Amino acid sequence: MEGDIYRMAFGMTTWDGLTPQYISSGSATIRAGRDIINFGTVPAIGCGLTGPVDCRGSTQIFGGAFRTAGLVVHNDPRDITLISAGRDIIYGNMTVAGPGNLIVEAGRNVYQGDSGRFTSLGPLFNLTPETRNGGAGISVLTGVGAGGPNYDAFASLYLNPANRADPAFPLVHPNNEGKVVHTYDAELTTWLSDRYGYKAESPQAALAYFDALSPIERGIFVRLAYYDELKAGGREYNEPESPRFSSYLRGRNAISVLFPEKNANGEAISYTGDLTMFGGSGVRTLFGGNVELMVAGGQTLIGVGSVVPPSTAGVLSLGSGDIDIFSLNSVLLGQSRVFTTFGGDLFIWSVRGDINAGRGSKSTAVYQPPRRVYDVYGNVTLSPPTQNTGAGIATLNPIPEIPPGDIDLIAPLGVIDAGEAGIRVSGNVNLAALQVLNAANIQVQGEARGIPLPPVVNTAALTTASSATSAVVAEVAKMAERVRPKPADIPVIVSVRLLGFGTQP
């Protein structure tokens, strides 16, 4: 496949007063052999406020103010929208309403600049206000090369229970060659039941059903298992009772399987490409749905220090979804943010770079308006917004009803820097890196591992030193007193005055 896609608008969102109207078809598959440029971006000409409006899409809107293009509406949790480019995706804008998955994949770079956004609106109907879930997940993959991640190799190794290692031997022992610590056959059975309604009678039956799915569908579960494996490997690093304590072996093995250095013919595979966002760019799920950023060939830039982003920018899970980030090089936030705000967990693994929380303002309000929810009977409820502030890295629970979220940050060859923006954790935190900087700017409500303790002043030693100094001073004073010369005896001088010799003749 060759060729580019330029300035394509798919689906539209309009407003009649304050009520949004969604005009779109179902899920879509959009592929380009080379680049996708300005996808879903509103053209500068032909989008007036009234009258017929043609925004170069497949639909014309008559009347009303046009606002955004790039919309798909999913009606089934199994719906998948795929946007795939063999090389680069530049300024992509896509909004997905309903459940399912939005997958954005580029062989090289995804460059969003200051205006590219991927957003999941959540369910249009039957939304549960208390849990704020059910929305589509968003996966952004960059630098994965022409063939993409090796999902088949990962599934063959990690989904077959026969490949489980013998815990009596170390993972590097010859008896465990080609084995893994944990296989995800039980998780696969549950996933197939939840997503497809398939009740597997055995792990082999589940694996056979899984193999019959399309590569895009298989990739959804493989990425879930991949991030779980990386997280488990990062936690083992700080677990003294683990046989892989202070070792990244488990995580590195998973990386080498999903992103091998050579293909089946022994030829080197090149992974090159960055994810670049700053200004108003971001990835957001508003009512559930996980966010996955997989940058296999470069750097993950979520913000820059010289541009103050709006409160809607960054990587945000405003529902109950998790955020998982894998990056070959550094993950840099600048003045932006990576937040979960309704109980989701947050995970970042940088293979050979740093994780920097940036220098964003702690007073910025991350605002989300309340949303009216209608059930099938016409009953109206209000899904309450959560008030969140700041920048940096955080799992927030601003009200007691929200469950805590954990944070795992892993940088085996780099530095974790809380920066000025800080790291806030409503649950437990696990950090593993060569060095952790600005640890005083890390706030944890649960258990903390990997955070260096602040230096403690030994007051007893200071007291002892002070006493010794006082004793020395006193002794010196005594010695000075002993060697001081004594004053010589001063003779008494008596003055005698002769007044006369009397009256004798």
Commentary on this structure:
The protein has 505 residues and is of the alpha/beta class. It has two domains: 5-149 and 269-449; 151-258, no CATH class. The protein is 17% helix and 29% strand. It contains six helices and 36 strands. The strands form six sheets. The protein has an 18-stranded parallel β-sheet that branches. A hairpin with a 2-residue loop joins strand 2 and strand 3. Helix 4 (215-237) runs antiparallel to helix 5. The radius of gyration is 34 Å and the shape is elongated. It starts with a strand and ends in a 22-residue tail after the last helix. Mean pLDDT is 85; it is low at 43-66.
Describe how the helices and strands are arranged.
Elements: E1 5-6, E2 12-16, E3 19-23, E4 29-32, E5 36-37, E6 52-54, E7 60-62, E8 65-69, E9 71-73, E10 80-85, E11 89-90, E12 93-97, E13 101-106, E14 110-113, E15 117-122, E16 137-142, H1 151-158, H2 185-196, H3 203-211, H4 215-237, H5 249-258, E17 275-277, E18 282-285, E19 291-295, E20 300-301, E21 314-317, E22 323-327, E23 331-332, E24 337-340, E25 346-350, E26 355-356, E27 365-366, E28 371-374, E29 380-383, E30 388-389, E31 392-395, E32 407-417, E33 423-425, E34 429-437, E35 442-444, E36 448-449, H6 459-483
Parallel strand pairs: 1-5, 4-10, 5-11, 9-12, 10-13, 11-14, 12-15, 13-16, 14-17, 15-18, 16-19, 17-20, 18-21, 19-22, 20-23, 21-24, 22-25, 23-26, 24-31, 25-32, 26-32, 31-33, 32-34, 33-35, 34-36
Antiparallel strand pairs: 2-3, 2-8, 6-7, 27-30, 28-29
